[in-house]
Amino acid sequence: MLIQFQKSDEMTLSESEKAVLSLLAKHSLVRRSELISLLANENNGANMATVRALMDRGFVGTICPLGESSYILTKEGARILKDDI
Fold first, then answer.
1. By three-state DSSP, how is residue 39 classified?
2. How far is residue 30's CA from residue 13's CA, in Å, rounded to a whole number?
3. What gap in Å lies between CA 69 and CA 53, rounded to an integer?
4. Is 58 helix (H, G, I), strand (E, B) or coil?
5. Number of helices and strands (H, E) in the chain?
6. pTM for this prediction
C-alpha cells in the first residue's frame, strides 16, 4: 500500500510570498520603510498585505529595536522557504 502526502494549501507559498521570504532571508532584519521600498522595487506583486498574511501564518515576525517596526524571517518561515524551493 502506497501512501502519498501532499502539501496542504496552507503550506503552499505563492510567488509573492516566496519573494517576501527570500527578501527577509537575504536581509535578515528589514525596517518597515525599507521593506516597503524593496517590495515596490522588486515588482513581484508582493505588498504589505502579503507580509501580514505571512505574519498570520507564523513565517514572519516583527521586532522594534530602534522605535520602528522591523521584520524578520522566523524559523518556520526559513523552513517553509527551504522546503518550497
1. helix
2. 21
3. 16
4. coil
5. 4, 3
6. 0.81
